[in-house]
């Protein structure tokens, strides 16, 4: 029987061995996510197996492994990389077997599985092809074997180990029987990142191509602005404000080069800067133009002479420029102050450890999020206020068409913003789709936000062409040359009446267009004489309701000397017009006697053959 002291000693030893084994198992299974063998990448570890029993230890001095060409700390996922390591075994050891190095390869274990050891065998581990070789040299009493390997990894963070195996015989025996197996390994951490290049995706190249077309469009607009620098439609829209609008479109278009599927710390900061400043320069001019329709509505004052009218117009233009400068300056100041504090103290950045398909998401600190929210809130309020202002504004004639252009630009941009917000929230995981919609919204906003200038230029071209074609068709130029020699008599020659009727055809054709009436009304506002255009508009409306009552209203308002808006025609023309109207009244009578719209319109417009022509001359 064993003595109590021997029993206690045996139990103590058994307990210590059990605790050591438990500690080892907990260490292996803990999945601390740090590194190879408790974070030790400096030492070479050996697993020595004798008769089925295995012991792990730091390799003795007789066994060494070193990295000759270590793997890089960061690699691109699914891209091959080369590495080279060396096994050194002392010549005092009796290496047996053929080939002498019976196994050599690389193992890569995800960091979250804990320790990475040669014996681990799960589907989570990536290994390279097995190699076998003999020692190729002897250096300083060490057998030397150099192993060259090629490897690639999926996306993730890994611990990679170089693993070799050889056998040492008992004594001087070359037999494998009873030989000790040595598994030797060294480790290194490695980060495998998504294989991606800047603007390397097909969808990114598509957006870049569209952005190039956008830039060509902006070059065209700048050329259009320079060529028409002194034109009224450029001058009246405040030149510097138009330039801000175009350059805002250029800056905002550039955002697609920074906010893409592969971003860095630098592009994150550039995206914030270009988006904020570009939006301010693009949209603020539209907001200002919408405000002008409320602050500077056109006013009519027939008692002001031409020189005073020009002075009033100049002062109003100056007030517009000062108002626009104040609003634009305020918006730029907000951008400069917020961006300076934000980017200098809390710049956005890319989390290098994020394991996502695309690196398209900038990270913001809590302080940076406050600045971003403030910036977004300011610009959202401006958009909402511009939308309400544009929809609530009212105008007539030429100004109504200008309002329509600005209103359409603001509405399109507001819709684009809403679509982007919805897509960002609803399709957050579909990176390519979100990038496509966001980029298209940016490009559409820049084009539609500056299209008003092109549309206004097109309208001016259309008006010039209509006038030119009409002049060629009816030989208006000849009529203009000969009109000064005509006498205001109803008995003038047939040829003179024929030419005057030709001019009336031109005027009627042009005036039937609401666009041209708008421009004529605008011209009459500048000369403080809107009666002529209003008279012709009344005649156009008469077509839809041809009655003597409406005709009497036209005569009372525009023809008779005591009319509120008496048109500027000669006394002889006025007298003959009144006489002809009295004849028509006697022929048709009053009360309940309607007359043919076209016939009476012809009579009304031909009270004198020169009436309409004189009116057209007064507003030209």
UniProtKB/TrEMBL annotation:
GO terms for cellular component: G protein-coupled receptor heterodimeric complex. InterPro entries: GPCR3_GABA-B, GPCR_3_C, RGS_sf, RGS_subdomain_2. Residues 1-35 form the signal peptide. Residues 203-425 form the G-protein coupled receptors family 3 profile domain. The chain crosses the membrane at residues 205-226, 238-258, 270-292, 321-343, 370-393, 405-427, 433-454. GO terms for molecular function: G protein-coupled GABA receptor activity. Gene3D superfamilies: Regulator of G-protein Signalling 4, domain 2 (1.10.167.10). It holds the Pfam family 7tm_3. GO terms for biological process: gamma-aminobutyric acid signaling pathway. Keywords: G-protein coupled receptor, Glycoprotein, Membrane, Receptor, Signal, Transducer, Transmembrane, Transmembrane helix. It is a multi-pass membrane protein. It is found in: Membrane. PROSITE patterns: G_PROTEIN_RECEP_F3_4 (PS50259). This is G-protein coupled receptors family 3 profile domain-containing protein. It comes from Lotharella globosa.
